[in-house]
Amino acid sequence: MASKLFDQLVNALLLFFSYLLIGMVGLLLFVLIGRILAWIIWRLAYYRRRLRGRVSEQRSVTLRQLIVSLMNALAVLLGTIFMLSLVTTPAALTTALGLFSAGLGFAARPFISDVMCGIQLLLQDQFTIGEKVEIGGRNVIGVVEQVSLTRTLLRGDDGELWTVPNGDIRTIRNFTRGSFSAAHIHLTIPTARLDEGLSILQSIIADPGPDVFEAPEIISEAGQISETTELMLKVKAQHGMAPQVRRRLLERIYAALDEHNIFPLSADSDPPSSKL
Protein backbone atom coordinates (compact mmCIF):
# COMPACT_ATOMS: atom_id res chain seq x y z
CA MET A 1 0.00 0.00 0.00
CA ALA A 2 2.78 2.41 0.95
CA SER A 3 4.70 1.48 -2.17
CA LYS A 4 1.63 2.23 -4.31
CA LEU A 5 1.14 5.65 -2.66
CA PHE A 6 4.81 6.39 -3.17
CA ASP A 7 4.59 5.49 -6.85
CA GLN A 8 1.51 7.71 -7.27
CA LEU A 9 3.30 10.60 -5.56
CA VAL A 10 6.35 10.17 -7.78
CA ASN A 11 4.17 10.01 -10.90
CA ALA A 12 2.29 13.14 -9.82
CA LEU A 13 5.55 14.99 -9.20
CA LEU A 14 6.95 13.87 -12.53
CA LEU A 15 3.75 14.93 -14.26
CA PHE A 16 3.81 18.29 -12.50
CA PHE A 17 7.43 18.98 -13.39
CA SER A 18 6.87 17.84 -16.98
CA TYR A 19 3.94 20.26 -17.32
CA LEU A 20 6.00 22.99 -15.66
CA LEU A 21 8.94 22.36 -17.99
CA ILE A 22 6.71 22.34 -21.07
CA GLY A 23 4.99 25.51 -19.87
CA MET A 24 8.27 27.30 -19.24
CA VAL A 25 9.60 26.28 -22.65
CA GLY A 26 6.38 27.48 -24.24
CA LEU A 27 6.57 30.79 -22.37
CA LEU A 28 10.18 31.33 -23.45
CA LEU A 29 9.19 30.46 -27.01
CA PHE A 30 6.38 33.03 -26.96
CA VAL A 31 8.75 35.64 -25.54
CA LEU A 32 11.29 34.89 -28.27
CA ILE A 33 8.63 35.11 -30.97
CA GLY A 34 7.40 38.36 -29.42
CA ARG A 35 10.89 39.88 -29.53
CA ILE A 36 11.29 38.87 -33.17
CA LEU A 37 7.88 40.31 -34.09
CA ALA A 38 8.69 43.49 -32.15
CA TRP A 39 11.90 43.93 -34.15
CA ILE A 40 10.09 43.29 -37.45
CA ILE A 41 7.25 45.72 -36.62
CA TRP A 42 9.74 48.35 -35.47
CA ARG A 43 11.77 48.08 -38.66
CA LEU A 44 8.63 48.30 -40.82
CA ALA A 45 7.44 51.38 -38.93
CA TYR A 46 10.93 52.89 -39.15
CA TYR A 47 11.23 52.42 -42.91
CA ARG A 48 7.68 53.64 -43.46
CA ARG A 49 8.42 56.89 -41.68
CA ARG A 50 11.78 57.13 -43.38
CA LEU A 51 10.09 56.95 -46.79
CA ARG A 52 7.80 59.78 -45.70
CA GLY A 53 10.80 61.80 -44.60
CA ARG A 54 9.65 61.95 -40.97
CA VAL A 55 12.04 59.91 -38.90
CA SER A 56 14.34 60.76 -36.01
CA GLU A 57 16.51 58.80 -33.65
CA GLN A 58 14.34 59.81 -30.67
CA ARG A 59 11.15 58.66 -32.40
CA SER A 60 12.83 55.40 -33.39
CA VAL A 61 13.82 54.69 -29.77
CA THR A 62 10.33 55.58 -28.53
CA LEU A 63 8.67 53.26 -31.05
CA ARG A 64 11.03 50.44 -30.16
CA GLN A 65 10.32 50.73 -26.42
CA LEU A 66 6.56 50.78 -26.94
CA ILE A 67 6.55 47.87 -29.40
CA VAL A 68 8.79 45.72 -27.19
CA SER A 69 6.57 46.46 -24.20
CA LEU A 70 3.46 45.49 -26.17
CA MET A 71 4.99 42.27 -27.49
CA ASN A 72 6.21 41.27 -24.01
CA ALA A 73 2.71 41.73 -22.60
CA LEU A 74 1.20 39.62 -25.40
CA ALA A 75 3.88 36.95 -24.96
CA VAL A 76 3.18 36.64 -21.22
CA LEU A 77 -0.58 36.46 -21.86
CA LEU A 78 -0.29 33.78 -24.56
CA GLY A 79 2.27 31.85 -22.52
CA THR A 80 -0.07 31.81 -19.52
CA ILE A 81 -2.96 30.58 -21.68
CA PHE A 82 -0.71 27.87 -23.11
CA MET A 83 0.32 26.68 -19.64
CA LEU A 84 -3.31 26.56 -18.49
CA SER A 85 -4.30 24.61 -21.61
CA LEU A 86 -1.96 21.81 -20.53
CA VAL A 87 -3.94 21.07 -17.36
CA THR A 88 -7.51 21.98 -18.30
CA THR A 89 -10.02 21.14 -21.00
CA PRO A 90 -10.81 23.68 -23.73
CA ALA A 91 -14.32 24.24 -22.35
CA ALA A 92 -13.05 24.83 -18.82
CA LEU A 93 -10.28 27.09 -20.14
CA THR A 94 -12.77 29.15 -22.16
CA THR A 95 -15.03 29.55 -19.12
CA ALA A 96 -12.10 30.48 -16.88
CA LEU A 97 -10.80 33.03 -19.39
CA GLY A 98 -14.25 34.58 -19.69
CA LEU A 99 -14.61 34.93 -15.92
CA PHE A 100 -11.05 36.19 -15.61
CA SER A 101 -11.56 38.78 -18.36
CA ALA A 102 -14.76 40.03 -16.73
CA GLY A 103 -13.08 40.30 -13.32
CA LEU A 104 -9.98 41.90 -14.80
CA GLY A 105 -12.02 44.42 -16.75
CA PHE A 106 -13.82 45.44 -13.57
CA ALA A 107 -10.91 45.43 -11.13
CA ALA A 108 -8.09 46.61 -13.37
CA ARG A 109 -9.73 49.40 -15.31
CA PRO A 110 -6.86 51.87 -14.64
CA PHE A 111 -4.32 49.33 -15.89
CA ILE A 112 -6.36 48.63 -19.03
CA SER A 113 -6.72 52.37 -19.60
CA ASP A 114 -2.94 52.78 -19.31
CA VAL A 115 -2.36 49.98 -21.83
CA MET A 116 -4.88 51.34 -24.34
CA CYS A 117 -3.38 54.83 -24.08
CA GLY A 118 0.09 53.28 -24.51
CA ILE A 119 -1.09 51.68 -27.76
CA GLN A 120 -2.42 55.08 -28.84
CA LEU A 121 0.98 56.64 -28.13
CA LEU A 122 2.49 53.90 -30.28
CA LEU A 123 0.29 54.83 -33.24
CA GLN A 124 0.53 58.61 -32.84
CA ASP A 125 3.67 60.72 -32.90
CA GLN A 126 2.77 63.01 -29.98
CA PHE A 127 6.21 63.12 -28.33
CA THR A 128 9.47 61.21 -28.35
CA ILE A 129 12.32 60.49 -25.97
CA GLY A 130 14.44 63.56 -25.37
CA GLU A 131 11.65 66.09 -25.96
CA LYS A 132 10.45 68.53 -23.30
CA VAL A 133 6.71 68.25 -22.68
CA GLU A 134 4.02 69.24 -20.22
CA ILE A 135 1.29 66.79 -19.27
CA GLY A 136 -1.67 69.14 -18.99
CA GLY A 137 -3.87 67.12 -16.67
CA ARG A 138 -1.07 66.73 -14.12
CA ASN A 139 0.87 69.98 -14.71
CA VAL A 140 4.02 67.90 -15.05
CA ILE A 141 6.89 69.42 -17.06
CA GLY A 142 10.05 67.53 -17.97
CA VAL A 143 12.14 65.77 -20.59
CA VAL A 144 10.86 62.37 -21.72
CA GLU A 145 13.28 59.64 -20.62
CA GLN A 146 11.30 56.45 -21.13
CA VAL A 147 7.97 55.39 -22.64
CA SER A 148 6.41 51.98 -22.00
CA LEU A 149 3.00 50.48 -22.56
CA THR A 150 1.71 51.61 -19.14
CA ARG A 151 3.75 54.65 -18.07
CA THR A 152 5.93 57.54 -19.20
CA LEU A 153 8.96 58.79 -17.26
CA LEU A 154 9.83 62.51 -17.30
CA ARG A 155 12.91 64.22 -15.83
CA GLY A 156 11.89 67.56 -14.28
CA ASP A 157 13.82 70.82 -14.41
CA ASP A 158 15.05 70.30 -10.83
CA GLY A 159 16.22 66.75 -11.52
CA GLU A 160 13.17 64.99 -10.11
CA LEU A 161 11.71 61.96 -11.89
CA TRP A 162 8.01 62.04 -12.76
CA THR A 163 6.18 58.75 -13.37
CA VAL A 164 2.99 59.44 -15.31
CA PRO A 165 0.50 56.62 -16.08
CA ASN A 166 -0.36 56.67 -19.76
CA GLY A 167 -4.05 56.72 -18.88
CA ASP A 168 -3.57 60.18 -17.34
CA ILE A 169 -2.08 61.66 -20.51
CA ARG A 170 -4.85 63.71 -22.05
CA THR A 171 -3.34 67.09 -22.99
CA ILE A 172 0.28 67.31 -24.12
CA ARG A 173 2.22 70.53 -24.50
CA ASN A 174 5.33 69.83 -26.55
CA PHE A 175 7.90 72.61 -26.12
CA THR A 176 10.38 70.99 -28.51
CA ARG A 177 8.09 71.13 -31.55
CA GLY A 178 7.15 74.79 -31.43
CA SER A 179 7.24 76.65 -34.73
CA PHE A 180 8.53 79.85 -33.09
CA SER A 181 9.50 81.34 -29.74
CA ALA A 182 8.08 84.57 -28.36
CA ALA A 183 10.74 87.24 -27.74
CA HIS A 184 8.39 90.06 -26.72
CA ILE A 185 9.82 93.21 -25.11
CA HIS A 186 7.97 95.61 -22.80
CA LEU A 187 9.08 99.20 -22.33
CA THR A 188 7.67 102.51 -21.09
CA ILE A 189 8.36 105.77 -22.96
CA PRO A 190 7.47 109.33 -21.92
CA THR A 191 4.35 110.35 -23.86
CA ALA A 192 5.91 113.71 -24.78
CA ARG A 193 8.53 111.84 -26.82
CA LEU A 194 6.19 109.08 -28.04
CA ASP A 195 6.26 109.97 -31.75
CA GLU A 196 10.05 110.13 -31.77
CA GLY A 197 10.30 106.91 -29.80
CA LEU A 198 7.96 105.10 -32.18
CA SER A 199 10.00 106.31 -35.14
CA ILE A 200 13.16 104.93 -33.55
CA LEU A 201 11.52 101.59 -32.80
CA GLN A 202 10.22 101.34 -36.37
CA SER A 203 13.73 101.86 -37.71
CA ILE A 204 15.04 99.11 -35.43
CA ILE A 205 12.40 96.50 -36.29
CA ALA A 206 12.80 97.21 -40.00
CA ASP A 207 15.85 94.91 -39.80
CA PRO A 208 15.28 92.61 -36.80
CA GLY A 209 17.73 89.94 -37.98
CA PRO A 210 17.59 86.63 -39.87
CA ASP A 211 16.35 84.66 -36.84
CA VAL A 212 13.02 86.56 -36.68
CA PHE A 213 10.06 85.04 -38.54
CA GLU A 214 7.79 88.01 -39.15
CA ALA A 215 8.08 91.77 -39.02
CA PRO A 216 7.72 92.71 -35.32
CA GLU A 217 4.72 94.75 -34.21
CA ILE A 218 4.52 97.66 -31.79
CA ILE A 219 1.33 97.67 -29.73
CA SER A 220 -0.03 99.14 -26.53
CA GLU A 221 -1.68 96.36 -24.51
CA ALA A 222 -3.30 98.74 -22.02
CA GLY A 223 -4.39 101.25 -24.68
CA GLN A 224 -3.94 104.13 -22.22
CA ILE A 225 -1.96 107.37 -22.55
CA SER A 226 -0.81 109.40 -19.55
CA GLU A 227 2.56 110.89 -18.72
CA THR A 228 4.08 107.67 -19.93
CA THR A 229 2.96 105.09 -22.47
CA GLU A 230 3.56 101.37 -22.08
CA LEU A 231 4.47 99.63 -25.31
CA MET A 232 5.10 96.03 -26.24
CA LEU A 233 7.28 94.92 -29.11
CA LYS A 234 5.86 91.59 -30.35
CA VAL A 235 8.63 89.48 -31.84
CA LYS A 236 8.41 85.91 -33.18
CA ALA A 237 11.88 84.38 -33.18
CA GLN A 238 12.98 81.05 -34.53
CA HIS A 239 12.22 78.25 -32.10
CA GLY A 240 14.73 78.25 -29.25
CA MET A 241 16.29 81.59 -30.29
CA ALA A 242 14.11 83.90 -28.15
CA PRO A 243 16.76 84.73 -25.49
CA GLN A 244 19.36 85.70 -28.10
CA VAL A 245 16.89 87.75 -30.16
CA ARG A 246 15.52 89.52 -27.09
CA ARG A 247 19.00 90.38 -25.83
CA ARG A 248 20.09 91.75 -29.21
CA LEU A 249 16.98 93.90 -29.65
CA LEU A 250 17.20 95.23 -26.09
CA GLU A 251 20.77 96.36 -26.70
CA ARG A 252 19.80 98.11 -29.94
CA ILE A 253 16.74 99.77 -28.38
CA TYR A 254 18.66 101.08 -25.38
CA ALA A 255 21.48 102.35 -27.57
CA ALA A 256 19.08 104.14 -29.95
CA LEU A 257 16.96 105.69 -27.20
CA ASP A 258 20.05 106.75 -25.27
CA GLU A 259 21.45 108.43 -28.38
CA HIS A 260 18.30 110.55 -28.66
CA ASN A 261 18.05 111.11 -24.88
CA ILE A 262 14.81 109.12 -24.67
CA PHE A 263 15.22 106.91 -21.66
CA PRO A 264 12.67 104.10 -21.21
CA LEU A 265 11.50 103.97 -17.63
CA SER A 266 11.45 100.16 -17.64
CA ALA A 267 12.18 97.31 -19.95
CA ASP A 268 11.24 93.76 -19.29
CA SER A 269 10.49 90.53 -21.05
CA ASP A 270 7.59 88.11 -20.95
CA PRO A 271 7.20 85.53 -18.18
CA PRO A 272 9.57 82.55 -18.34
CA SER A 273 6.97 80.43 -20.14
CA SER A 274 7.40 82.53 -23.28
CA LYS A 275 11.10 81.68 -23.42
CA LEU A 276 10.45 77.99 -23.90
Brief sketch in words of this structure:
The chain is an alpha+beta fold and 276 residues long. Helix content is 51%, strand content 18%.
Task: Explain how this protein is built.
The chain is α+β, with helices and mostly antiparallel strands. The chain has three domains: 2-107, no CATH class; 132-174, SH3 type barrels, CATH 2.30.30.60; 180-275, Alpha-Beta Plaits (2-Layer Sandwich), CATH 3.30.70.360. 51% of the residues lie in helices and 18% in strands. It has helices spanning 2-51, 57-85, 90-107, 109-123, 194-205, 242-259; strands at 132-135, 140-147, 151-155, 161-165, 172-174, 180-182, 185-190, 217-219, 228-234, 236-238, 267-269. Helix 1 runs antiparallel to helix 2, helix 2 crosses helix 4 (109-123) and helix 5 packs across helix 6 (242-259).
- Overall pLDDT, averaged? 76
- CA-to-CA gap between the ends? 82 Å
What is the beta-strand fraction?
15-25%
Helix content: 40-55%
User: What is the domain total for the residues?
Assistant: 3
Figure out the total of helices: 6
Report the order of strands and helices: HHHHEEEEEEEHEEEHE
Q: How much is the radius of gyration in Å? A: 31 Å
The count of strands amounts to 11
Structural class: alpha+beta
Major beta sheet, strand line-up = 4-3-2-1-5
> Which residues sit in consecutive blocks of at least 5 with pLDDT less than 50?
265-276
What global shape is seen?
rod-shaped
